[in-house]
């Protein structure tokens, strides 16, 4: 076993442990921090697979944005997580069955050649001057340009729909109307009041 395979097994063990701690930790903030560790470990395994762009995207998007927002929401909301976790162990048999099935599938995929199953040949090493970011960008903006633009349109429509569904007009909100301010006249703003002069006693 070479050094790269050993590092992969170390990262895989850390990833499995952190994923288990995400669902078993009693403190929700600890669960979120273990999820951050899982994201970092997954990014490290992608770097081992020479997928640097995907690794840095995972760190920037999920760790840098999604998880920070999730932590802020957890710290701001007063949620009784003990009540939410009351029925946690009732889902254990189904979760264990699904987890064992996924482990069996991954074992067949990764160890298929040891069991005599037909597997795909390993891709050739592209060499030191290869840039997977450049190759991914070329493939994304040439062969899958329409699918990429369609996904962008769907995301924009979803964002606009989320804003429209959550937008509520409040009656006590004060805001300016620039058209009315421009069309105002002097007589509407200034009013001269004639007052009698008071005589001192």
Concise structural overview:
This protein is mainly α and 201 residues long.
Structure in words:
Helix content is 66%, strand content 0%. With 201 residues, the protein is mainly alpha-helical. Among the domains are: 1-86, NADH-ubiquinone/plastoquinone oxidoreductase chain 6, subunit NuoJ (Four Helix Bundle (Hemerythrin (Met), subunit A)); 130-165. Helix 2 (28-48) packs antiparallel against helix 3. The protein is elongated, with a radius of gyration of 30 Å. The chain starts with a helix and ends in a 12-residue tail after the last helix. 4% of the residues are buried. The mean pLDDT is 80.
**Oligomeric composition of the shown chains:** single chain
Overall geometry comes to elongated
Percent strand equals under 5%
Overall helicity: 55-70%
If classified by CATH, what would the architecture of the domain at 1-86 be?
A: Up-down Bundle
Order of helices and strands: HHHHHHHHH
Number of helices: 9
**Main beta sheet:** none
Computed over alpha carbons, the radius of gyration is 30 Å
Write down how many β-strands occur, each being a DSSP E stretch of 2 or more residues: 0
| Terminal-residue CA separation | 109 Å
Q: Which topology of the domain at 1-86 does CATH recognise?
A: Four Helix Bundle (Hemerythrin (Met), subunit A)
**Spans of 5+ residues with little confidence (pLDDT < 50)?**
none
CATH superfamily of the domain at 1-86: NADH-ubiquinone/plastoquinone oxidoreductase chain 6, subunit NuoJ
Question: Average pLDDT across residues?
Answer: 80
What's the level 1 CATH class of the domain at 1-86?
A: Mainly Alpha
Secondary structure category = mainly alpha
């Amino acid at each position: 076993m070479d050094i790269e395979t050993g590092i992969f097994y170390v990262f895989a063990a850390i990833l499995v442990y952190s994923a288990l701690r995400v669902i078993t930790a009693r403190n929700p903030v600890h669960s979120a921090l273990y999820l951050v560790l899982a994201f970092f470990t997954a990014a490290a395994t992608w770097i081992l697979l020479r997928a640097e762009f995907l690794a840095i995207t995972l760190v920037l998007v999920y760790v840098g944005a999604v998880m920070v927002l999730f932590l802020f929401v957890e710290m701001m909301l007063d949620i009784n997580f003990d009540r939410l976790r009351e029925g946690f162990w009732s889902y254990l048999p189904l979760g264990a069955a699904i987890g064992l099935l996924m482990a069996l599938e991954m074992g067949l995929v990764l160890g298929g050649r040891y069991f005599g199953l037909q597997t795909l040949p390993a891709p050739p090493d592209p060499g030191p001057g290869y840039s997977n970011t450049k190759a991914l960008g070329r493939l994304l903006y040439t062969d899958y340009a329409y699918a990429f633009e369609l996904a962008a349109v769907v995301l924009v429509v979803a964002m606009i729909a989320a804003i429209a569904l959550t937008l509520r007009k409040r009656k006590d909100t004060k805001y300016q109307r620039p058209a009315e301010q421009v069309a105002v006249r002097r007589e509407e703003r200034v009013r001269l009041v004639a007052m009698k002069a008071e005589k001192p006693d």
